[in-house]
């Protein structure tokens, strides 16, 4: 989805909590007041926003919506075990540097300082996500999404301290590169391990929880508007019940959206035991969880929902 402010220069961040909530809503993200507040403060104070929560609750989507609605470039750094500076920040184009050395040798150049300056020139610097985020952009500072930081090693966390404190990177061969304007930084973690306090202190923090039934229904209505209204209410109630079970991995918002889309594709207007059994793989991704639902737990949840609906009139 493209921003609808093309040709009007840099789009400023929202100037109030209400405007922040509206910005997210226009991007299809149904936010609660607490999230809108901390996002507004993060933008206003130019502080990174640290989002923690279970996988699938919509943390990454916040950065995507922010980039689209503000017309900014989204730079995503997907973290993983073994992520290092060369992959995340910069590396040198070694083949091009070797050509530079061979050319210097061929021309008989003897000035070592000049040769080194040519080897470590900016044209040979390969910018990875973090260094890209420090570069000036005519659309305004980009959105830097550091996604699933808990997957990276603690050594990489330590490196990020300089970036998040001063929005700068030190490159031994050429010195310090500093952002003219700080990027809009969103950091996410699924809490598979604890992130060090030193990094958290540099950020504003928000725990992104599963939505309540009313907000999840609003999300379905926004993201899957073609879904039957009765079906949407039923499947949201069903997912809310599922999350109360001791599952290996409870379904996230993304899975609820996928399930609503799948049932709509099947022209369903209500859910029944057979439909649940046949489509449960859209919601749950672990065999033991799926087996538990197919072996009777799924029917029990449906019976509870029917009983609650009857009692409610």
Keywords, please?
alpha/beta; Rossmann fold; 3 domains; 5-stranded parallel β-sheet
Describe the structure concisely.
It is built from 14 helices and 9 strands. The protein is of the alpha/beta class and 313 residues long. The chain has 3 domains: 17-80 and 131-207, Rossmann fold (3-Layer(aba) Sandwich); 90-127, no CATH class; 213-306.
Summarize the structure in words.
The chain is elongated and about 90 Å long. A hairpin with a 3-residue loop joins strand 6 and strand 7. Helices cover 50% and strands 12% of the residues. The strands form three sheets. The protein has a five-stranded parallel beta sheet. A two-stranded antiparallel ribbon has the order 3-4. A two-stranded antiparallel ribbon has the order 6-7. The chain has three domains: 17-80 and 131-207, P-loop containing nucleotide triphosphate hydrolases (Rossmann fold); 90-127, no CATH class; 213-306. With 313 residues, it is of the alpha/beta class. Residues 1-7 have low confidence and may be disordered. It has helices at 17-26, 33-45, 59-70, 85-88, 94-106, 112-119, 129-134, 154-166, 197-200, 213-223, 229-242, 253-265, 273-283, 287-311, and strands at 49-52, 74-78, 90-92, 125-127, 143-147, 168-171, 175-178, 184-189, 204-207.
